User: What shape does this take?
Amino acid sequence: MFSGSIYKRCKCTEPRVDATGEPVLDSNGNPKTRELGTNCPDLKKRDHGSWYYYVNLPDGPRGERRRPRKGGFATRAAAQHAAQKLWTQANQGIDVESRETVEQFLRRWLSNRVDLKRKTRCDYADFLERIYIPALGHLTMRELRTRHIQAMFEDIWAYNKIKEANRKEAEEALAACEAARQAWRQAARPRPPELRQHWNEAKAILKEARAKPRQNTGPGTQKRFLDALSAALRAAVMEKLIAENWADEVVIPKYEKPRPLVWTDERIARWRQTGDKPSSVMVWTPELTGQFLDATAGHRMYVMWHLQVFRGPRRGEATGLTWAEVNMTQGTANIVQQLVSDTSHQLFEETPKSRSGRRTIALDSGTHQLLATWRDLQKAKRAEWEERHRKNPEKYGPYVDSGYVFTQDNGTPWHPDNVSKVFDRLLRSLDMPPIRLHDLRHCAASLSLAAGLSMKAIQALLGHATFTLTADTYASLMPQFEREAADAPVALVPRAQGQLVEEAATAEVDNARPELTLVKESGSPEAGKTAA
Assistant: This one.
């Protein structure tokens, strides 16, 4: 049982008097009052006042007295229950007197996480400033409960509805702008000025609509929000700031990691008809991959894309590859770093995504030859740039000897986001079924599967952390593997020369027991025998 007291008090007041019984006045001549507290005669009434508790805790580390108290309870039992809970938590090591807020704790937690990669730290800092602190930062850690975190996600869902309305508004504005543009272009000359004015107004409306937030916060992003907050609260539990991890019982939309789908002829036809992608992760067939490589052979990023198609580095690993890690004699490339960006779009180097991400990949002969050609071209471009800088230093800055394999004309590396944007624009101009730049990595896996490589070899090629991740992602990627898997059980069953077909479509049969007729390929009279 807790050590302390349960008592009742109220806010009733009475005039303050001195030793002679005269009222005490303030500087303005008004009588001073005092609360009756536990001395109010009306406390015996059931509905008068409220219940309080105080708990005697062991003295603090500096010998300070610790007697936390709290009131406002409607019944004695409620106050006693709260006091007992506080006493139990204190004896379990919980710092029941802490007034640290959620904001203060989260900032302290993040500053102590020296083990985080820079990209992860930037993401967590963004979550803190944009999501957690506005919704939860004002609460103390002792006040925080599951309902507060749940309400935070409910606000996210409500904002998603607003962004959905913004997307529809932008689509309607785009359609109206295009209609106004066509009306102006198709008008007979001299074109009426009001048509041009209408088009300009439509463009202004479209610009305003596109300025509104439209990007949905999907289940995957919500899971990242919850996982990061849960990690912080686990640390709070370890510090004995809170009794349990309040994020554990929060319910958010279920997130299922999208699995790659192949662009089959049927899916392409549907996409051309509706514009909808079957999945957020799509993979080209070998034929489509060949079409892409043939169409982009003269592009300045072709060598990088060729490397991604056949050897599967991530985009940050490709843009972060340096000549120092490419062995042109042996035909290998060491993947030891990647280029990533923070929320301000600034680039920095970081180790690969997982421990197994640091790997050495063998270059296929085609990529090997392309890299040799590209190295010579890069040297020529450097000489050309340095000549431009010599003639016009104000327009052309000095060449940057960055050491990266894939660089712009001035020697600086490509930003991964810009490579993705160029890739997306190129696919639209080629009218090819859309995939993400990252999906070239899935193309590398599918081509390796089709070529007969084992899952273990593909895991090593891609730098996956586990074999399970590779198998779950790519086991049924290519259609030919699905056909082989479907035919394999049939091949195990010995059959007579012939096949069973249903006669229900051509003859009247018993509805409860349709009969099957054995039809021999030879077409002999025995074909009329029925099978029980």
In short: The first helix runs from residue 76 to 91.
